[in-house]
Amino acid sequence: MPLTLFEKIWQRHVVVEEEGELLLHVDRALFHEGSSHAFAKLEQQGRSIARPQQVFAFNDHYVPTTGRDKGVNGIANAEIRNMVIQLQTNATKHGITLFGIDDPRQGILHIVPPEQGITQPGLLICGADSHTATHGAFGCLAFGIGASDMMHVMATQTIWQRSQKTLRINVNGSLGFGVSAKDVILAIIAKIGVAGGTGHVIEYAGSTFRTMSMEGRMTVCNMSIEAGARAGMIAPDETTYAYMQGRPYAPKGAAWDAAMMLWKQLPTDAGACFDREVSMNAADIAPMVTWGTNPEQGGPVTGAVPNPRDIEDEIAAQEAASAIEYQGLTPGMALTDIKVDKVFIGSCTNSRIEDIRAAAEVAKLGRAVIPAWVVPGSQLVKRQAEREGLDKILIAANFEWRDPGCSLCTAINGDQLQPGERCASTSNRNFKGRQGTGGRTHLVSPAMAVAAALKGRLTDVRELMKGA
Questions:
Q1: For 390, which of 143, 235, 360, 447 could close a Cys bridge (C-beta 3.0–4.6 Å)?
Q2: What is the CB neighbour count within 10 angstroms for residue 105?
Q3: Could you tell me which residues come within 8 angstroms of residue 325 by beta carbon, excluding any fewer than 6 positions away?
């Protein structure tokens, strides 16, 4: 029987089935400073970590993105400082690899594993963060879990799960001028909704994804969770293998050859069945921006804030009205008339080297007229950008160049919006208060974020780039 990519990986990881649930082997476990509860549960039960070499820890959510020259001692907030220290203590005690605050490889837990070759096709990866779906860009099954499940994973290297339905999203054709991977996933979510993938694992297929870089694929898979999906996946191909080869944790020599034999068997078989399918044309996708308080509430930057009275679904209309009120907008106003107070370029969605390059390319066209931060996703990204002179371009354009971390995406490390402030953000969530109590967020691509910084309002980046 023809099988999907998901089914092939799922079946390979089943240990036992019991009362409708499956015990699955876990290949990698990833967590950050906020995972202390999982370690506490481990201690309470007197357990140890079953396979420390398959568990990786990261300083990212809570570390500050400024003043890092003093290391841990430079963290002014005592509570955050203690969380960073506690992660170091737990990592040392249990013999697990920590990409800590002083590590030259430090960065976000969805940026560093691909860089290091820890993320590989065919694996089952669990992370203490919902955006673990990012890793599915490599043709693996990756999803976020809570503290209790993480404790079980650490103690047994397994997890109990129920099977998921499958949804294939086909996008074909070439993307237009000024359109990026971020616009693709925002357009998908606007089409299927924030609950469109609920109960499903999404496989992204079609020529648009096949020609997309690994960095673009990671951006797309990262936001699968914003469509309600358990995970997002893209079949591995030559682009995947070229990205992975030679990375520190990637197989070497004969092991690489053996791995390639397995990886090339992973893509979905011709004739395999999905529970649902959705199709889109790449040429129909424009630079996107969200106007509301969930990722579904968005559209092309050339559009306008909707009028809730024009929305037929009563619940959706109520949600739109509430979002518009919170965002301080007026139905019918052009999206390009929305003034912005701050710009954030970063997060596990858009802080890779290609994102920084895209930002710098637009930054050459002017100077930021509002506060704008660029936060690389890892120390490797930061150093690469500096070797290419991208930091100098951004700084000359009045952007602030910061150290790696989750920063304003999570607003739990000192980086946050003030009540009422409006931000054009490359992060993945625009929920009420996500970037700070009372903060207002508009999700955009890196190029669109820079355009907003240069103009002080949401701006169609294509208009800026036409004369470049």
A1: 360
A2: 16
A3: none
Per-residue pLDDT reduced to its tens digit, 140-187: 999 999 999 999 999 999 999 999 999 999 999 999 999 999 999 999
User: Count of alpha carbons within 13 Å of 189, Cβ hemisphere only?
Assistant: 31
CATH architecture assignment, domain 5-161: 2-Layer Sandwich (3.30)
Q: Give 297-465's CATH code, choosing from 3.30.499.10, 3.40.50.1780, 3.30.1490.20, 3.50.50.60.
A: 3.30.499.10
Cα–Cα distance for residue pair 347/226, rounded to 1 Å: 15
Q: Which residues lie below 8 Å from residue 387, measured CB to CB, with a gap of 6+?
A: none
Q: Do domains 5-161 and 165-284 have the same CATH topology?
A: no
Q: Count of H helices and E strands in the chain?
A: 16, 19
Q: 405 Cβ partners below 8 Å, 6+ apart?
A: 59, 60, 61, 63, 64, 65, 107, 108, 375, 413
β-partners of residue 279 are 170
Residue (of 360, 372, 377) closest to 421 by Cα position: 372
Q: Which helix (H) or strand (E) holds 113?
A: helix 112-116
- Both tokens of residue 91? 């990592």
Whether residue 74 contacts residue 128, with contact meaning beta carbons closer than 8 Å, is answered with no
Dihedral over Cα of 356, 362, 366, 370: its sign: negative
Q: Is the pLDDT of residue 232 over 70?
A: yes
pTM passes above 0.90:
yes
Round to whole Å and give the CA distance between 42 and 107.
Answer: 25
460: helix, strand or coil: coil
164 to 147, 202, 207, 228, 230: CA distances (angstroms): 21, 10, 25, 12, 8
pLDDT at 468 over 70: no
| Superfamily of domain 165-284, CATH level 4 | Aconitase, Domain 2 (3.40.1060.10)
Residue 427 dihedral angles phi and psi, to the nearest 5°: -75, -165
pLDDT tens per residue across span 353-365: 999 999 999 999 9
